[in-house]
Design brief:
This protein is an alpha/beta fold and 216 residues long. It has a single domain, classed as TIM Barrel (Alpha-Beta Barrel). 32% of the residues lie in helices and 20% in strands. An eight-stranded parallel beta sheet has the order 1-8-7-6-5-4-3-2. The protein is globular, with a radius of gyration of 16 Å. The relative contact order is 0.17. It binds D-xylitol-5-phosphate and zinc ion.
Length: 216
């Protein structure tokens, strides 16, 4: 089973993104997570294309782009061009998820679908066999540094059951409140990808923290 850490750049020092990329390059993190927020789907605004393009120049790891925006379908090609290797959209933001999935795939990149903690996991049933990953939010999308919602473990079990029943092969990613205390438990539960913002970037030795998340 793959065990991937995808540190979230949202918690990095925005005055020195090149250094953050160099840290990621030197670490055991396999992906870099980029949170795009529009102030509409979520009550926060982060960054967009120019920042992703700049990060792409310095980061050798695949860019795992998490869209928290309305009408993600309008910008798929631009995110692909900017350097996204994986593009994940919120189920809540689109009218026709299947169309969006196909549009992302047609760019030759990987596709993910995600839901907030108040959306039943069962809505994903139709999509698990058509996407590369399902991202279960373990906090409400919008801000870094929130507390992990404990009910997420049951939701992970539910998702695993659906994936098995549909004989699908998508990865399970979780995002929000992941730290050294719950990383191992989440991997053991069957999660493949852990997003971690504060737990990585706000520690004195992020490279060591990433290593510990994979090895505790
Ligand atoms: C929240 C974002 C997360 C965030 C995670 O909406 O999707 O990726 O950066 O931050 P932490 O790991 O600090 O909870
Ligand atoms: Zn995210």
């Amino acid at each position: 089973m793959s065990k991937i850490i995808s540190p979230s750049l949202l918690s990095a020092d925005f005055g020195n993104l090149k250094a953050a990329c160099e840290m990621i390059n030197a670490s055991e993190a396999e992906w870099l997570h980029l949170d795009v927020m529009d102030g509409s789907f979520v009550p926060n605004i982060s960054f967009g294309f120019p920042v992703i393009e700049a990060v792409k120049k310095h980061c050798i790891k695949p860019l795992d782009v998490h869209l928290m925006i309305v009408h993600p379908e309008k910008y798929i090609q631009r995110f692909a061009k900017a350097g996204a290797a994986i593009l994940t959209f919120h189920y809540e933001t689109v009218e026709n998820p299947l169309e969006v999935i196909e549009k992302i795939k047609s760019e030759g990149i990987k596709v993910g679908i995600t839901i907030n903690p108040d959306m039943p996991v069962s809505v994903l049933e139709e999509y698990v066999d058509k996407v590369d990953l399902v991202l279960l939010m373990t906090v409400f999308a919008g801000y870094g540094g929130q507390k992990f919602i404990e009910e997420s473990y049951t939701r992970i079990d539910e998702l695993k059951e659906i994936i098995k029943r549909k004989n699908a092969h998508c990865l399970i990613e979780v995002d929000g409140g992941i730290n050294l205390q719950n990383a191992l438990k989440l991997f053991d539960r069957g999660v493949n990808v852990l997003v971690a913002g504060n737990a990585v970037f706000k520690t004195s030795n992020p490279i060591e923290t990433i290593h510990s998340m994979l090895n505790t």
